Amino acid sequence: MLELKNVGFTVKNEADGKNLEIIEDVSFTLEDGKFLVITGPNGGGKSTLARLIMGIEKPTKGQILYNGTDITNMSIDERAKLGIGYAFQQPPRFKGLTVRRLLSLAHGSELPEDECCSYLTRVGLCSMDYLNREVDSSLSGGEVKRIEIASLMARDLGLAIYDEPEAGIDLWSFQMLVKSFRMLSSEKNESVIIISHQERIMQLADEVIVIADGKIRTQGAKDEILPTLLGEFDRKCDLRGEKGAEGNA
Amino acid sequence: MLDIKESNLLKAISDVSFLPENSVYNLRKNGLGVERKTNEKVQIENKTDKPGIDIRIMPDTKNETIYIPVIITESGVNDKVYNDFYVGENADVTIVAGCGIHNSGCNESRHDGIHRFFIGKNARVKYVEKHYGDGEGTGARVLNPVTEVFIGENAVCEMESVQIKGVDSTERETNAVLEAGAKYIVTERLMTHGNQSAVSNMVIELNGEDASAQIISRSVAKDSSEQVFYPRAVGNAKCAAHVQCDSIIMDEAKIRSIPEIAANNADAQIVHEAAIGRINNEQLLKLMTFGLDETEAEEIIIQGFLK
Ligand SMILES: Nc1ncnc2c1ncn2[C@@H]1O[C@H](COP(=O)(O)OP(=O)(O)OP(=O)(O)O)[C@@H](O)[C@H]1O
Ligand SMILES: [Mg+2]
Asked: Which among A86, A95, A134 has CB closest to B289?
């Protein structure tokens, strides 16, 4: 179980020395085996929240508990060993590291070829073409993103956080991905947090949290939240329509 | 024939712990040639005017691997050797060179290998050279290799040099001259630590039409070590050259990269790229989310980078 208690994160702005509050008093609980989708506008603080849970950033206020243990001051690798994993929104590339090695590092031991392949297949990559390729700039953005997701699937986790897994991924692979996430939530007793803007992914959720301006704006079961969210979106679109929408996108 | 220490050195520089029976080799130990094997296609003879050997590879020789390792296990050895390789037309061979120094004394041990390659038309040469040093002594381990390469028409020369551990001071000189259609591919891997210093000077002259060269240098400088790269590519004909120097800098290390490219022909295309920077923080963070600590993560990134 993951518990956030009044978590806040403030940084000092280098330019004017003022404090900038990026996350403000966020509290929620995620039960084991539950599937949570976090959504909300760009710059709202979703990735920051994920980085706080993983330990990449340390909260300036509040507490984070995982399975009853206070992990607020634990390092990244300690949290990883407890079974927390995070697939980055923008995964880095590595010169000289093959896909197979990366998946093995994620897994914690050398992965047999067929297992590597099955993880790659789940994210829609034809494994034979990729196993021995390096995770360097020769891979496309969507490919790196999918390998990142596969590397999280290769781990044995209690809590998996995926940051916009759908970003940059083509329609066909996206369907494959949705299927994999569905499988994940039913097979393993893993808690999953997915940061996403996609309705198709929100449909998989048990719960949805909307983050805006560093705060939780709405929170609840999918069936309650989703209709209001979509309604709000429709209204916004209508509004634009009425105004005649300059700079139409 | 080799004791454990010697065969460890041999393994570190040539990936074999003893010299394969069916290959051609010349082993030099503490300044003297100690073992040699030749065949009808590859001949090795001592030079008469100075220390060193002439290696003659007959035209059309295929699939031969030639080992010419140098090992130094005594402290205070100062070894200078001149090796000339004559590679016949259409030959296709691999040459595994390298120098391992085990210095457990307090005097400097030093090896300067002056290697010249005369590569005939349409021949292919792969040359692998590893430098390695160990031993608990305070005596410095010094290697100053000089490599001169003449690549004939449509010949291909691939050179790989690796120096990852234990060499205190290196000054490397590489000069290459390319004729029409010749191809030269160099990859350099270097890691320095402690107070080590490494200098690599390189001049590549592309003289013939459609000659091409690709130089890739990757290095890591740790602690207070220092590295200087000075690659120069000169295009004298319609040709193509690409020089790429990538370095990771850590701790109090210093790295200088001085690229020089020159074209004396309007159809010469010469590109130089150089970058020096710290280990990428996102890479470190990513590996730490797999449960590795910072030092382990650094090791993996460096290993991959130098692969
Ligand atoms: N270390 C930092 N210093 C200054 N500002 C930061 C820092 N980290 C995040 N921010 C700012 O905090 C806000 C939230 O960023 P975050 O990446 O969490 O948003 P997000 O909800 O993930 O957005 P998106 O949907 O675009 O991915 C942004 O305005 C960002 O610029
Ligand atoms: Mg984000």
From this structure: A86
- Specify if B40 maps to a domain: yes
* Domain total in chain A: 1
Report if residue B292 sits inside a domain.
Answer: no
Q: Ligand 1: distance of its center to the CA of A23 in Å?
A: 9
Q: Which A-chain residues 175-234 have CB contacts (< 8 A) with chain B? A: none
Report the domain count for chain B: 1
Q: Domain limits at B111?
A: 4-279
Instruction: Read off φ and ψ for residue A128, nearest 5 degrees.
Output: -60, -30
Predicted local confidence at residue A238, as pLDDT: 54
Burial of B163-187, coded b for 16+ CB within 10 Å and e otherwise, reads: bbebbbbbbbbbbbbbbbbbbbbbb
Going by C-beta distance under 8 Å and a sequence separation of 6 or more, which residues neighbour residue A54?
A: A76, A79, A84, A85, A86, A161, B289
pLDDT tens digits, residue range B153-196? 999 999 999 998 889 999 999 999 999 999 999 999 999 999 99
What is the CATH number for A64?
3.40.50.300
In a domain, A248, yes or no: no
* Residues 6+ away with beta carbon under 8 Å from A232: none
Does residue A249 surpass a pLDDT of 70?
no
Would the pLDDT of A243 be above 60? no
The residue contributing the CA closest to ligand 1 atom 16 is A45
pLDDT confidence band for A234 (50 / 70 / 90) = low
Do the domain assignments include residue A149? yes
**Assigned domain for B301 exists:** no
Give the tens place of pLDDT for each residue, A149-208. Answer: 999 999 989 999 999 998 888 887 888 888 888 787 777 778 999 999 988 899 889 999
